[in-house]
Amino acid sequence: MNNFKTIYLREIKSYFNTPMAYIFLVVFALVNSYFFTLWFFPSNQSDMRSLFSIVPLAYLFFIPAISMSLIAREINSGTIELVSTLPIKDVEFVVGKYLSSVTLIAIGLGLTLVHFFTLVNVGSNIDYGAVFCGYLGLLLVGSVYCAIGVFASSISDNQVVAFIVSVFVVLAFFLMDKMLIFMPQGLVGIMEYISIDYHLSNISRGVIDTRNIIYFGSLIGFFIFLSLRTFDLRRWS
Amino acid sequence: MIEVKNLSKNYGDVAAVKSINFSVKDREIIGFLGPNGAGKSTTIKVITGFLAPSAGDVIVNGMDIKTNQIEIQKEIGYLPELNPLYTDMLVYDMLEYVAGVRGIHGRAFKDAFARVIDQCGLSGVVHKRIDQCSKGYKQRIGLACAMIHDPKILILDEPVTGLDPNQIVEIRSLIKELGKKKLVLMSSHILQEIEATVDRIVIINNGEIVADGSNRSILRKFSGASSIEMELLGVDKEEVKKIEEKIDSVKVSSVRKSGSSTMVSLSCKGKSDPREDIFKYAVKSKWVVLGMSQKKSNLETIFRKLTSEAK
Ligand SMILES: Nc1ncnc2c1ncn2[C@@H]1O[C@H](COP(=O)(O)OP(=O)(O)OP(=O)(O)O)[C@@H](O)[C@H]1O
Ligand SMILES: [Mg+2]
Fold first, then answer.
1. CATH of the domain at B163
2. Which pLDDT band, with edges at 50, 70 and 90, does B73 fall under?
3. Which of B7, B11, B202 has most ligand 1 atoms within 8 Å of its beta carbon, as the pocket-test mutant?
4. Are the CB atoms for A100 and A173 separated by under 8 Å?
């Protein structure tokens, strides 16, 4: 049990030992602020909808970038042999790493709260529930993308490959909703259920349905499971 | 105690380890000896749980690696061949991390830390980043990581590579000291390194065990085998051949002309030293001897001998 924590803390430290985490946080905050202010003031509306539509776009590149090295670097440098021969369960290793990337995303989202305070200062009739749900949705989507990133990072010793694979998979989930019109009638229902946007917009509207939560939970579980399988396969190579 | 039974490991089509059997008792220092690509590291990686066996069993202290991997890993300290370390960490942090994973915290960590720093001679680099340490120090850091939990079983894959001669002597005596209380399995492809440290040698070649015995018995068996190189003046091939009839323990393995001299290689059987007989014979036959030297067989010839015997 304690190993989750040990792995997690090491990973967090290693994020903040390099410029990586700071660069990520600063750029992530700047990109989001830029577009937020670009749209927020002209729109004259007291909500954060513009932020909530920017962040998922920013995720597309930011999350693969912060997760690509998680496992791939250990495979590449050989430290995978060290951790695999320490009494650490695969699940502790993978989930510990996964949670560290989710934490970084959560900190990134935390920085955007600046805009929330702006809103509180200048806006009127603020729907706090909608803001909360919006953030919850972003955190859930980010968590799914991190799981995808961890999986991509587990299949190769090359971080660039991991990055490309995770951008590709994340993009597929992101675009699924937008492709619905090209889909045959029979598939639309299924594709809609699989697509991220469908569930994200449900949550953002303030409807927190268990089905949406189950959806996000099972996607995360699925990709963590795949990472564990690839991890185990390496032993049999 | 480690028991390896009919262990095989394939990498795709490559059979790296072919159904080997051996066991190691507690408080025994065992040396895995073999040329590059013999399968030493592969065997070690299976014992430590990094790779799964393709066939056969590894039993450590009565537990099966397939079902009790984590429990086994708690009892083993392992220094991998390439000594992978988190190079962006401080030496202290790295040791704290490994100790943490092994459930050693606080007071217990302080004690364990002081012990390995002392044993491995790391006091000068504790607060250095690992990538700023020299190769020899990195090797000691790897060793310290393997020993932080004072394991019952220590597995070291080529532990002295990258060390200078003084450090090699230090590490050797450390290993010997540790072997009084622990099971130590180390690998090497250098005979001298192994012979100075271990109680028992297992020679592995081409994925198979070709010899297994106490240090002394292995050395006695092989170190006698030697060859003698002679440089003679104006002696022809037929004449040289006659030496085989007079001295039983030598055989002429090659004769060639080099300018006016004749270069002769003699291989010697057993461990007797036939140089005196050869000298006397040369005098009697009125050979002009320009030079004579004896070559102890090195590991290469031992391996060649062993593998040709196996066929
Ligand atoms: N990951 C791998 N994939 C495919 N083949 C491998 C792999 N690792 C090792 N081999 C092959 O398995 C055989 C045994 O290799 P191993 O590393 O066990 O040898 P070794 O005895 O440790 O040699 P060395 O003294 O060079 O360390 C070699 O033929 C090697 O090429
Ligand atoms: Mg090796």
1. 3.40.50.300
2. very high
3. B11
4. no
